[in-house]
Amino acid sequence: MKQQSEKILVAEDSPTQAEQLKHLLVTKGYAVVIAQNGKEALEVTRKEHPTLIISDIVMPEMDGYEFCRSIKSEANLKEIPVILLTSLSDPADIIRGLLCAADNFIVKPYDEKELLSRIEYILVNRELRKHEKSRLGVEIFFAGQKHAITSDRLQILDLLISTYETAVHKNRELLKVQEKLQQLNTELEAFSYSISHDLRTPLRQILGYAELLVRHSGSALSNEADGYIQTIQDCGTKMTSMIDGLLSFSRLSHAQLRKGPVDLNQLVKEVQNDLRMETEGREIHWKVEPLPTVYGDRSLLYQVFLNLLGNAAKYTRQRTVAEIEVRYREGSENEKIFLVRDNGVGFNMQYADKLFGVFQRLHSESEFGGTGVGLANVRRIIARHGGKTWAEAKEGEGATFYFSLPEQAKE
Q1: Within 13 Å, how many C-alpha atoms sit on residue 68's CB side?
Q2: Is 273 in contact with 310 (CB distance < 8 Å)?
Q3: Looking at the predicted structure, is the pLDDT value of residue 143 above 50?
Q4: 169 pLDDT above the threshold of 70
């Protein structure tokens, strides 16, 4: 059990959190006093002279920083260690902590073992703190402002240790979240693949029986019934395309990349040739700059250009003369940025974040057909190559789609 002299003051305006913290500390043998705001905590400190103070930063009447400054400014109180509870969402919290002479930080919500370990560390070193009087005067620039910090070496060391431990803790938590998200994403993709695959059989049966009904009873059906069957067939065909698109999207996450040098000039020519049936009879001015050879999966990069150039051709159908441009430029950090620009219908940039989502459409299907999966595939392919995708447009004035590729694309 701790000696009764080891009294801890908890300054916390939340009664629930204050009681939780008190319960934790009391079970470890500490005597605990609670104050509900900074002003009350200062009065209690002057009266009780606690061994250590744990203070929330956000409190009414007097916040944790001001409370800490007040403690450290009084000669008979300044040796009392102060731990600030903070979210550390802003790196400037460290600077504020040093400026008010705080001794340590604990992240909220805190890990109980970490908090107890931090308290034990400070109490074990309190005698050293009393004798360590070598102070350092340092001027630092942070966020465009100059700060003059005068602190003893142990205090700076404590703050650095607490900051490092906080960063390690946050990193561990982020890794856990990342692993969980990866697991959920894998499960979701497996589920969508399974559902899409299993939907194929009943859908084929629906379309098959609709065809049989037309074949055997077509002449006996009324115009109204014939229209119903046609609607069934049209919806079934559309659903088949959506399922195919979803399966294709799911496969992209698992398909192994077969990387090698890819001549994009030759690739674009192949895409233009494959779009010939869709563009036949139209006046399209192609402006394709000489493109570099990149490192990637040729078949997947072919899909990228097929989707982007196919969309450009589709959304310029209303133009008497369509203009489709393919260019590239050198970006930062050894990357190449490619763009496909058209003079088509464009879109409202307010909805640009929806463009690369599965089944997301910014134009009605009656105007422009498609499943709404193409751009989602583009984003996934480019992401697997280590690049990014984005777009710019203006309604009625065309659109530009960009993607980047690193010099040596990564998995």
Answers
A1: 26
A2: no
A3: no
A4: no
CA dist list (Å): 278 to 217, 222, 231, 313, 325: 35, 35, 25, 8, 17
Backbone angles phi, psi at 388, to 5 degrees: -130, 160
DSSP-derived secondary structure for 243-254: HHHHHHHHHHHH
Strands 7-11 and 31-35: parallel
CA atoms within 13 A on the CB side of 137: 0
What is the C-alpha to C-alpha distance for residues 129 and 406, in angstroms, rounded to an integer?
52
Residue with tokens 């600077």: 95
Residue 361 burial by Cβ neighbours in a 10 Å radius (0-12, 13-18, 19+): middle
Within 8 A by CB and 6+ apart from 121, the residues are none
User: Which pair of tokens denotes residue 376?
Assistant: 């989602």
Return the higher-pLDDT residue of 104 and 98: 104
Q: Which helix (H) or strand (E) holds 158?
A: helix 153-217
**Helix, strand, or coil (residue 325):** strand
- Please state, in angstroms and rounded to a whole number, the distance separating the CA atoms of residues 354 and 210: 35
Omega prior to 109 cis, within 30 of 0: yes
Question: DSSP secondary structure string, 292-310?
Answer: -EEEEEHHHHHHHHHHHHH
DSSP conformational letter for 257: P
Q: What is the pLDDT of residue 235?
A: 79
Distance CA 78, CA 67 (A): 12
Q: Where are the domains of the chain?
A: 7-131, 186-254, 259-406
The domain 7-131: what is its CATH number?
3.40.50.2300
Report pLDDT for 410: 46
Residue 338 has φ and ψ, to the nearest 5°, of: -110, 150
How many of the other CB atoms lie within 10 Å of CB of 352? 15
Beta-bridged to residue 389, according to DSSP, are 403
Give pLDDT, residue 269. Answer: 94
Q: What is the pLDDT of residues 363-400, one digit of tens each?
A: 545 454 455 677 888 888 898 888 999 989 888 888 99
CATH class label, 259-406: alpha beta
pTM > 0.70: no
Buried b (16+ CB within 10 A) or exposed e, 45-59: beeeebbbbbbbbeb
When the pLDDT of each residue in the chain is averaged and rounded to a whole number, the result is 79
User: Strand 293-297 to strand 259-263: parallel, antiparallel, or no bridges (unpaired)?
Assistant: antiparallel
